[in-house]
Amino acid sequence: MTGPDDLRLDTLEPEDLDGHTIDELADYLDAGMQPADPSIDDSAACQNALAALVRLRQSSMGSLDAAAEHEEPAEESWIGGVLANISLEARAGRDVPLRPVAPTERPVMTEGAIRSMVRTAGDVVPGVVIARCSLEGDVTELDAPVRVLVELAVRSGVPIHPVAEQVRAAVAAVLAEQTDLVLAAVDVRVRDLLPPQPGSVDPHDDEEDRA
Protein backbone atom coordinates (compact mmCIF):
# COMPACT_ATOMS: atom_id res chain seq x y z
CA MET A 1 0.00 0.00 0.00
CA THR A 2 2.65 2.47 1.01
CA GLY A 3 4.98 3.89 -1.59
CA PRO A 4 8.73 4.53 -1.30
CA ASP A 5 8.10 8.05 0.02
CA ASP A 6 5.92 6.81 2.90
CA LEU A 7 7.27 6.34 6.42
CA ARG A 8 6.70 3.19 8.41
CA LEU A 9 5.61 3.08 12.04
CA ASP A 10 9.13 2.40 13.30
CA THR A 11 10.43 5.62 11.68
CA LEU A 12 7.82 7.94 13.19
CA GLU A 13 8.88 10.44 15.81
CA PRO A 14 6.79 11.44 18.86
CA GLU A 15 6.95 15.05 17.61
CA ASP A 16 4.45 14.01 14.93
CA LEU A 17 1.79 13.74 17.65
CA ASP A 18 2.89 16.30 20.24
CA GLY A 19 5.07 13.83 22.11
CA HIS A 20 2.85 10.76 21.74
CA THR A 21 2.95 7.72 19.47
CA ILE A 22 0.09 6.16 17.53
CA ASP A 23 0.35 3.09 19.80
CA GLU A 24 -0.10 5.27 22.90
CA LEU A 25 -3.17 6.86 21.35
CA ALA A 26 -4.59 3.44 20.49
CA ASP A 27 -4.06 2.34 24.10
CA TYR A 28 -5.70 5.55 25.34
CA LEU A 29 -8.68 4.84 23.10
CA ASP A 30 -8.89 1.24 24.37
CA ALA A 31 -8.98 2.57 27.95
CA GLY A 32 -11.98 4.74 27.13
CA MET A 33 -9.73 7.83 27.25
CA GLN A 34 -9.66 7.50 31.05
CA PRO A 35 -8.01 8.80 33.12
CA ALA A 36 -8.05 11.99 31.08
CA ASP A 37 -4.70 13.06 29.67
CA PRO A 38 -4.63 16.81 28.90
CA SER A 39 -1.54 16.39 26.72
CA ILE A 40 -3.70 14.27 24.41
CA ASP A 41 -7.08 15.93 24.94
CA ASP A 42 -5.70 19.42 24.25
CA SER A 43 -3.62 18.41 21.22
CA ALA A 44 -5.24 19.02 17.83
CA ALA A 45 -2.88 16.50 16.21
CA CYS A 46 -3.76 13.81 18.75
CA GLN A 47 -7.48 14.51 18.40
CA ASN A 48 -7.23 14.20 14.60
CA ALA A 49 -5.39 10.91 14.98
CA LEU A 50 -7.87 9.57 17.56
CA ALA A 51 -10.81 10.43 15.31
CA ALA A 52 -9.11 8.64 12.41
CA LEU A 53 -8.44 5.59 14.60
CA VAL A 54 -12.12 5.44 15.59
CA ARG A 55 -13.22 5.63 11.95
CA LEU A 56 -10.64 3.02 10.94
CA ARG A 57 -11.94 0.60 13.56
CA GLN A 58 -15.57 1.22 12.65
CA SER A 59 -15.12 0.95 8.89
CA SER A 60 -12.84 -2.08 9.02
CA MET A 61 -14.43 -3.90 11.95
CA GLY A 62 -14.02 -7.61 11.45
CA SER A 63 -11.46 -7.16 8.66
CA LEU A 64 -8.38 -6.35 10.72
CA ASP A 65 -8.02 -9.80 12.27
CA ALA A 66 -8.76 -11.52 8.97
CA ALA A 67 -6.24 -9.35 7.16
CA ALA A 68 -3.60 -9.92 9.83
CA GLU A 69 -3.88 -13.68 9.35
CA HIS A 70 -2.92 -13.37 5.69
CA GLU A 71 -0.56 -10.39 5.71
CA GLU A 72 3.10 -10.01 6.48
CA PRO A 73 4.04 -8.84 10.02
CA ALA A 74 2.14 -5.77 11.16
CA GLU A 75 4.79 -3.20 10.31
CA GLU A 76 4.72 -4.36 6.69
CA SER A 77 0.97 -4.81 6.37
CA TRP A 78 -1.64 -2.42 5.07
CA ILE A 79 -2.74 -1.92 8.68
CA GLY A 80 0.69 -0.61 9.62
CA GLY A 81 0.70 1.63 6.59
CA VAL A 82 -2.67 3.17 7.44
CA LEU A 83 -1.62 3.80 11.05
CA ALA A 84 1.64 5.38 9.94
CA ASN A 85 -0.17 7.67 7.53
CA ILE A 86 -2.72 8.67 10.19
CA SER A 87 0.14 9.70 12.46
CA LEU A 88 1.87 11.73 9.76
CA GLU A 89 -1.30 13.33 8.44
CA ALA A 90 -2.36 14.47 11.91
CA ARG A 91 0.59 16.86 12.16
CA ALA A 92 -0.32 20.52 11.79
CA GLY A 93 1.84 20.98 8.69
CA ARG A 94 1.57 24.15 6.64
CA ASP A 95 -0.81 27.03 7.34
CA VAL A 96 -3.44 27.16 4.59
CA PRO A 97 -4.94 30.64 4.14
CA LEU A 98 -8.67 31.28 4.10
CA ARG A 99 -10.27 34.20 2.31
CA PRO A 100 -10.35 37.16 4.75
CA VAL A 101 -13.55 39.02 5.48
CA ALA A 102 -11.71 42.20 6.53
CA PRO A 103 -8.35 43.58 5.27
CA THR A 104 -6.80 43.19 8.72
CA GLU A 105 -7.67 39.49 9.01
CA ARG A 106 -5.35 36.62 8.17
CA PRO A 107 -7.43 33.48 8.81
CA VAL A 108 -5.72 30.13 8.30
CA MET A 109 -6.48 26.43 8.65
CA THR A 110 -3.74 23.90 9.26
CA GLU A 111 -2.86 21.35 6.62
CA GLY A 112 -3.39 18.62 9.23
CA ALA A 113 -6.94 19.80 9.84
CA ILE A 114 -7.66 19.66 6.11
CA ARG A 115 -6.19 16.17 5.76
CA SER A 116 -8.36 15.06 8.69
CA MET A 117 -11.37 16.61 6.92
CA VAL A 118 -10.54 14.67 3.75
CA ARG A 119 -10.14 11.41 5.68
CA THR A 120 -13.45 11.98 7.52
CA ALA A 121 -15.32 12.64 4.26
CA GLY A 122 -13.93 9.52 2.59
CA ASP A 123 -14.30 7.17 5.54
CA VAL A 124 -18.09 7.60 5.67
CA VAL A 125 -18.44 5.88 2.28
CA PRO A 126 -19.47 2.26 3.05
CA GLY A 127 -16.93 -0.44 2.23
CA VAL A 128 -13.97 1.94 2.12
CA VAL A 129 -10.98 2.63 4.37
CA ILE A 130 -8.83 5.69 3.61
CA ALA A 131 -5.24 4.51 3.45
CA ARG A 132 -3.54 7.84 2.74
CA CYS A 133 -4.38 11.40 1.74
CA SER A 134 -2.12 14.26 0.72
CA LEU A 135 -2.29 17.80 -0.66
CA GLU A 136 -0.08 18.53 -3.65
CA GLY A 137 0.68 22.13 -4.58
CA ASP A 138 1.44 25.38 -2.81
CA VAL A 139 -1.35 25.38 -0.25
CA THR A 140 0.21 28.42 1.45
CA GLU A 141 -0.83 30.65 -1.48
CA LEU A 142 -4.46 31.69 -1.72
CA ASP A 143 -5.95 30.71 -5.12
CA ALA A 144 -2.99 28.48 -6.05
CA PRO A 145 -4.23 25.24 -7.69
CA VAL A 146 -4.07 22.18 -5.43
CA ARG A 147 -4.45 18.48 -6.21
CA VAL A 148 -5.77 16.16 -3.53
CA LEU A 149 -4.64 12.53 -3.61
CA VAL A 150 -6.72 9.95 -1.75
CA GLU A 151 -5.67 6.30 -1.63
CA LEU A 152 -8.24 3.69 -0.65
CA ALA A 153 -8.62 0.16 0.57
CA VAL A 154 -11.93 -1.29 -0.65
CA ARG A 155 -13.76 -4.26 0.80
CA SER A 156 -14.04 -7.30 -1.46
CA GLY A 157 -17.41 -7.40 -3.22
CA VAL A 158 -17.89 -3.60 -3.14
CA PRO A 159 -18.12 -2.06 -6.66
CA ILE A 160 -14.85 -0.14 -7.00
CA HIS A 161 -15.76 2.55 -9.54
CA PRO A 162 -18.94 3.75 -7.78
CA VAL A 163 -17.33 3.97 -4.33
CA ALA A 164 -14.26 5.73 -5.73
CA GLU A 165 -16.56 8.29 -7.32
CA GLN A 166 -18.48 8.67 -4.05
CA VAL A 167 -15.22 9.38 -2.22
CA ARG A 168 -14.14 11.88 -4.88
CA ALA A 169 -17.47 13.72 -4.70
CA ALA A 170 -17.53 13.71 -0.88
CA VAL A 171 -13.99 15.09 -0.62
CA ALA A 172 -14.58 17.77 -3.26
CA ALA A 173 -17.82 18.84 -1.56
CA VAL A 174 -16.38 19.18 1.95
CA LEU A 175 -13.32 21.08 0.74
CA ALA A 176 -15.48 23.44 -1.29
CA GLU A 177 -17.67 24.08 1.75
CA GLN A 178 -15.03 24.32 4.48
CA THR A 179 -11.93 25.73 2.74
CA ASP A 180 -10.94 28.22 0.06
CA LEU A 181 -8.69 25.81 -1.80
CA VAL A 182 -8.78 25.94 -5.58
CA LEU A 183 -9.04 22.28 -6.51
CA ALA A 184 -7.27 21.30 -9.69
CA ALA A 185 -8.40 17.71 -9.12
CA VAL A 186 -9.29 15.10 -6.54
CA ASP A 187 -7.42 11.95 -7.55
CA VAL A 188 -8.69 8.69 -6.02
CA ARG A 189 -6.61 5.53 -6.25
CA VAL A 190 -7.61 2.07 -5.02
CA ARG A 191 -4.50 0.45 -3.59
CA ASP A 192 -5.78 -2.51 -1.54
CA LEU A 193 -8.62 -5.02 -1.39
CA LEU A 194 -9.90 -5.88 2.10
CA PRO A 195 -11.50 -9.20 3.07
CA PRO A 196 -15.32 -9.16 2.98
CA GLN A 197 -17.21 -8.28 6.16
CA PRO A 198 -17.60 -11.45 8.28
CA GLY A 199 -21.04 -12.91 7.71
CA SER A 200 -21.44 -11.16 4.36
CA VAL A 201 -21.68 -12.98 1.06
CA ASP A 202 -18.97 -12.30 -1.49
CA PRO A 203 -20.67 -12.12 -4.93
CA HIS A 204 -17.66 -13.85 -6.46
CA ASP A 205 -18.35 -16.86 -4.23
CA ASP A 206 -21.93 -17.01 -5.57
CA GLU A 207 -20.60 -17.00 -9.12
CA GLU A 208 -18.26 -19.87 -8.30
CA ASP A 209 -21.09 -21.85 -6.68
CA ARG A 210 -23.32 -21.38 -9.74
CA ALA A 211 -20.46 -22.51 -11.98
TrEMBL record:
The source's superkingdom equals Bacteria
Descriptive protein name: Asp23/Gls24 family envelope stress response protein
* Native source organism of the sequence: Curtobacterium citri
Ranked from the top, the taxonomy reads: Bacteria, Bacillati, Actinomycetota, Actinomycetes, Micrococcales
